[in-house]
């Protein structure tokens, strides 16, 4: 059982690492199913969350739901409001922003994320 768990987690991790396009959990599920037709949707979703919690992949909250990213360094994203495509936005990441926000409001700010919205070249 333990062996199977480890193998399933590896399949999910590999599927995310082979994706360039910030896949949804469903897209990962479909990719993993091609390797292991017995794996359940619940198992794939659970492993995605475990891998994100462990910092092996990035989970991005977008207006349409969670997307997954093989790039774990903090970076900005943009989502197309028409086709829901997500790509990286190469802007400098301001690591000081959490501290600045903490100072302003007296909270212990631990993270922030940037998601732009707009139309991709195919949709505009
Ligand atoms: Zn689009
Ligand atoms: Zn990204």
TrEMBL record:
The keyword DNA-binding applies. Gene3D superfamilies: 3.30.1490.190, Winged helix-like DNA-binding domain superfamily/Winged helix DNA-binding domain. Belongs to the Fur family. It comes from the Bacteria. Transmembrane segments: none annotated. Its cofactor is Zn(2+); Mn(2+); Fe(2+). Binds 1 zinc ion per subunit. Keywords: DNA-binding, Iron, Metal-binding, Repressor, Transcription, Transcription regulation, Zinc. Fe cation binds at residue 112. GO terms for molecular function: DNA-binding transcription factor activity; transcription cis-regulatory region binding; zinc ion binding. This is Transcriptional repressor. The keyword Transcription applies. One of its GO terms (biological process) is regulation of secondary metabolite biosynthetic process. Zn(2+) binds at residues 80, 83, 120, 123.
């Amino acid at each position: 059982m333990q062996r199977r768990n480890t193998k399933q987690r590896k399949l999910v991790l590999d599927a995310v690492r082979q994706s360039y396009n910030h896949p949804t959990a469903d897209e990962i599920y479909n990719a993993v199913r091609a390797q292991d037709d017995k794996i359940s949707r619940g198992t794939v979703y659970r492993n995605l969350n475990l891998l994100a919690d462990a910092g092996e992949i990035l989970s991005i909250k977008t207006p349409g739901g969670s997307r997954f990213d093989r790039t774990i360094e903090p970076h900005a994203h943009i989502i197309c409001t028409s086709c829901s495509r997500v790509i990286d936005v190469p802007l400098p990441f301001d690591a000081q922003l959490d501290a600045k926000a903490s100072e302003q409001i007296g909270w212990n700010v631990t993270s922030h994320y940037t998601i732009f919205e707009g139309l991709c070249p195919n949709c505009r």
